[in-house]
């Protein structure tokens, strides 16, 4: 009598056959059928990791996100010694959750699963899975705002697969976040040579071209990314400079009178993109994708070692980054107001943690 490797009676390995049928249905695009087979397999062998993995994958494919989150947690618990199960669960948390559902706790959990899976894959000498897990770890770290640690994880993948376009892409993205722009460009050009049809490579090279003022190249690369992956790279919202400044004026006028009084000597300006010197003035460097920045000493404080504290107080909003972060004109205008309030919070001396606690992150 077979037990399915879980201590549960499973005559004739019925659960294993149901799992195989479930994964076959998934491969053929029949997610509802895959879920039905997985449910039957779990009923026959409740602790069978493969059955729980099949069920989680089917729920993910059906976009039943809340149920998929619980199902992947169950699969990871049952398959805690299986690096493939851990890799799939980590990937779901780090890469597959919709942005509206993604939370820092998910990224931290995915990071932990990826690291655990990587240790098991290394013991089993599974090089391909080790590379996959290193990349998941790097993406989690990047999303958590830790690109320096992401670069270290990518280095492990690069040692195993130095010519892999996906590895080179992740390296280029991490270098870009670290403001190592020329290194990022060289790395991404190497990735493009290996996979010229990757939209993420095209978009990243567009960002770098835009930053160095090569507008024609930037437009060409952004257009290519849109053609290759229109859902991932829709045409950005564009406001004229006059329209954008008018939206900033409206956002300022919407602030409480008491706050506006404090801002009477604070210049609020608009720039296309953050200057490299502003990004590198912070330690660690700021992300090139920041939406706004406060320069100067916070209200009521004297100048400090902060490189901006000796400058006249000012708030700058970055038009292209704000437009790129939004999907509609209304969303851009809403984000202008949210970013302005965030930077006003810095002017008033609030830390990032305090801004988060007040809902101003």
Indicate the topology:
Blueprint: H1 14-27, H2 31-44, H3 49-61, H4 65-78, H5 83-96, H6 104-123, H7 127-143, H8 147-160, H9 165-177, H10 181-194, H11 199-211, H12 215-228, H13 241-253, H14 257-262, E1 267-271, H15 276-281, E2 292-295, E3 314-318, H16 319-324, H17 329-347, H18 352-357
Parallel strand pairs: 1-3
Antiparallel strand pairs: 2-3
Helix pairs in contact: 1-2, 1-3, 2-3, 3-4, 3-5, 4-5, 5-6, 5-7, 6-7, 7-8, 7-9, 8-9, 9-10, 9-11, 10-11, 11-12, 13-17
Describe the structure in your own words.
39% of the residues are buried. It is elongated, with a radius of gyration of 24 Å. Helix 5 (83-96) packs parallel to helix 7 (127-143). The termini are far apart. By secondary structure, it is mainly alpha-helical. It is built from 18 helices and 3 strands.
Question: Notable features of this structure?
Answer:
three-stranded mixed sheet, mainly alpha, 361 residues, disordered N terminus, 18 helices
Tell me, briefly, the overall form.
elongated
Strand count, sense and barrel status of the largest sheet are: 3 strands, mixed
**Low-confidence stretches at least 5 residues in length (pLDDT < 50)?**
1-7
Secondary-structure element order, N to C: HHHHHHHHHHHHHHEHEEHHH
* Count of extended strands: 3
Total helical segments: 18
Strands side by side in the biggest sheet: 1-3-2
Head-to-tail CA distance between termini: 57 Å
